[in-house]
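Complex record, four chains
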Amino acid sequence: MAVAKKEGEEGGAEAPSLWERMERPAPLPRASLTLERIAAAAVEIADEEGGAAVTMRRLAGKLGVAPMAAYRHVDGKDDLWALMIDRVSRDLTVPEGTTDWREVLRSYALQSRELMLAHPWMAAMPTSVIMLTPSRMAVAERQLAALAVCGLDADSMMAAFRAVTSFVHGSAQTEIALRDYQERNGWTSGDETRQALAPQMRYLISTGRYPAFEQYALGATRKDDRAWEFAFGLDCVLDGIGLRLGV
Amino acid sequence: MAVAKKEGEEGGAEAPSLWERMERPAPLPRASLTLERIAAAAVEIADEEGGAAVTMRRLAGKLGVAPMAAYRHVDGKDDLWALMIDRVSRDLTVPEGTTDWREVLRSYALQSRELMLAHPWMAAMPTSVIMLTPSRMAVAERQLAALAVCGLDADSMMAAFRAVTSFVHGSAQTEIALRDYQERNGWTSGDETRQALAPQMRYLISTGRYPAFEQYALGATRKDDRAWEFAFGLDCVLDGIGLRLGV
DNA sequence: CATCCATGTGTACGTTGTACGCAAGAAGAT
DNA sequence: ATCTTCTTGCGTACAACGTACACATGGATG
């Protein structure tokens, strides 16, 4: 696809960004389309039919409008994705009273996992990681602020925040990909999945090249406890950060 | 860049008359396709022109073959991706002598980051995380084995391995997304990027809602040292695992 | 020599993102 | 009132995509 570079407006007033436009008061009576409505419709489609179902035509259909109408409000599909990410990310909140850095980061992490599991299409857009939409800025600010009061230097503060975020995204992505894979094959439980994959697994084991995998297959007791696994990793990261805060 | 290709196909789009077919070129020498050749060509395209440029037609063109030819060897695009991932993942190696768990995991993590930065299209396929291709199985086995000898139970062993992997993928994805974003806008350095984003940044700061971001913007000295940031997060995860190994 | 099968070819269909020009109504100026 | 201009939605159109399907061909096998 052509990487069209939107050239900036020379000299004149800056083109209002998507977010500035979003905070703008009343779009006009004539305007039946708003960014709010567009975002809501797109998220609804993605939640119900998967991220791939969010096409400009499908979206227009849901909005009761011609296929090209949404382009008056949104630059393209990237903009639309940003809108969607921002909208669902508004659900991320931590009680105001909480000040302990670890509690803040941990809470956001657990919520982020839940959020991505609830909106699996989020995992399919890699750029979502860096998209600084208003609601994601708020989340980041909250976490950075919690770290800042612990005496960490600016660089370490950001690195620690990003470490947690990276783990959360990578982890949720894996979990979603795994779940999708199971669903695509119609397997409804971990046992069913393992049973279906048993032949392949037996072959791999028989090669003798994967003793550690075999050890896991035989000895593990929490193979399907994804929440535990997530918490394990998360606590590893948080412990590591804790060490650097001088505990 | 919108590639305006469409090079002359022999025969053209004209009606293929009987006579035309009669003196059709000699029985062209069959260049037999192999999975190896297909994978190599696909990776080459992705490396040179980006993951989005890997289309079945472009691939066929590079292989000197008709658009549909590759389908005899590959089920579809998902298969092709798996092939590509497996191929580049062969580059991940750790000296045989290394036995220390931390050294093994750390080395693979650093190499994985380099690998993804060298093949940024890897970040664009979310399912890559769970794809157990042969070369990725080998990598996983090596890391699990390193953890297994430390007395960790099977569940924790897998959880620890996945924690590191998740961090690495999430982290590399962010880094790549950020780099792509810069390149797409023609910014060639961190300073140039910040300068270009300054207006937006000023607006955000002016709202007073992001004091921690402001603190970072003012106080950070390693804003562009991505390798350092990666190592920071990685060591956090490894330290956390270390704590659980009773070290 | 006949037959089969694996492999490459060609055409074709449905779907996608979106560029571009037009239309309808509101707002401001004359 | 009339005219211009801006905003918003509509409709057509196009290139590119993945891939289904029917056909062609040539080496292996009987």
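Note: The radius of gyration of chain B is 24 Å.
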